[in-house]
Amino acid sequence: MAAAYPQIVLFGDSLFQGVVDVSDGFSFQAALQAQVLRRFDVINRGLSGYNTSNALSVLPQIFPPPVPGGPKLEYLFVLFGANDAAVSLPTNHQHVPLEKYKDNLAKIISHPNITAHKPKIFLITPPPLDQIRITQLDLAAGHPSATRHTKISTKYSEAVRQVAAEKPHVVLIDLWKALMDVAISKTPEHNPNGPQLGDPEGGVRGYLEHLLPDGLHLSSESYRIFYDIVRPHIGSEWAGTRDEDRVAYVLPDWRLAPWLEEDAHLKG
Prior knowledge:
Blueprint: E1 7-12, H1 14-17, H2 28-35, E2 41-46, H3 52-62, E3 73-79, H4 98-109, H5 112-115, E4 120-124, H6 131-140, H7 150-166, E5 170-173, H8 175-185, H9 208-211, H10 220-230, H11 258-267
Helix pairs in contact: 3-4, 4-7
């Protein structure tokens, strides 16, 4: 029987599709795969443009129920919302109402094809939004106005926190807070009591310019920050063990492989 590696699945929109990018010298997915090499397969199911309703419709095609000898879904990371939060425009139809978004998230993480694997589930908040930059690019692309608004997107990030808080088996990864904390710390002119960075009402992009180059998608620096908050949640199975560098391998380390016993037997 073939050795089935347990899986870490990244299920989301373009923010997960983009974790494979290495154009700036760092890849979130490569870093994560290096962390779990020989123990897990990291599977990318980032689907650019998808909202949670789209995700639910294709979920059975992505997550089959467990079968004997098949791979087990060990960790599931879910990152949707950037498209759900898009405003309804004649040129954009990605919007999902806030309450339906919350319901969709709950349905995703409780889908029987997923729960049958008994994975560790992580819900990730959509990152901050730079509406100032998005407005520039959206108008240039022919939209009548910005497709996404800072204040609306912030509500969708808060919705993820609420869903995670209602599910005791789910861990929250607050990407919004991690990135915004960095942006604020590196924007000394920002008034913490005023509008958010990236909000046209305040008119200050600040360090979001570096974290969200197009106002929506993550830069290499942002993906490093993202990875740094994910990394501690992976690897408790072998962390602190005597042979930490080899414990939990699907196929044994060469120094512990069965053929060494065969060699010893032949030599004896």
